[in-house]
Amino acid sequence: MGTNTGRATAxxxxxxxxAAVTGxxxxxxxxxxxxxxxxxxxxxxxxxxxxxxxxxATVAGKVSARSTSLGKILVDGEGRTLYLFEGDKPNKSxxxxxxxxxxxxxxxxxxxxxxxxxxxxxxLSTTTxxxxxxxxxxxxxxxxxxxxxxxxxxxxxxxxxWSHGTWYVLGTSGKKNTTPQQNTGGGY
Length: 188
Prior knowledge:
The chain is globular. It has helices at residues 2-25, 31-36, 43-49, 98-102; strands spanning 62-68, 71-75, 83-85, 107-108, 113-114, 124-128, 134-138, 141-142, 161-162, 165-170, 176-177. Helix 1 crosses helix 3. With 188 residues, it is an alpha+beta fold.
C-alpha cells in the first residue's frame, strides 16, 4: 500500500506544479476558464495539466461495464475506469479540494444513463456536490475517475489510499472490487 500512497502523492505534486505553471503562463487557449473554474470542476484544468486526455463532464453520463484484469468493472462513456471512495458517505462525496485534482468526480447535467455490459439503471442516480454540480452515483457510491489512468482500461487507482479511505473499482452489482492491482511496471 505504500507504493500506492507514494504514487498518489507524486501525482498530486505533479498536478499542483503543472497547475501553477499553467496558471502563470498566460498562454492562450482557455487559461481564464481554468483559473476561474471551481476547485471541484477540474475538467478544463486537468486537460492542460496532464499529458493524458482528461475526463470530462457529460450532459447525460453513460455508465457501462468493461472486462479488465480486475473483472467486469464500471466505466464512463469514454471507457475510462470509475471508482468509489471508501471515505464517502452513502450518496455524499467527501472528496474535495486537492482530492478532486487527482480523483475528478463524474459530473453530469442530466440523469446518468445505463450503457452496456450489465449496468443496472435502477442503481444509477446523482448526488449534489458542495459546489452544486451533480455527481453520478451507482448503488449510492459517488463515482470518480483517476488522473493516473492514461487510457481506457487502465485501473491504476485500484487500492490507492487517500486521507481517510481507499479507492476501488465497482462491479455491476454496485459493490467494491478489492482485487489487488497488478504491478504494471510504472517505476514508482
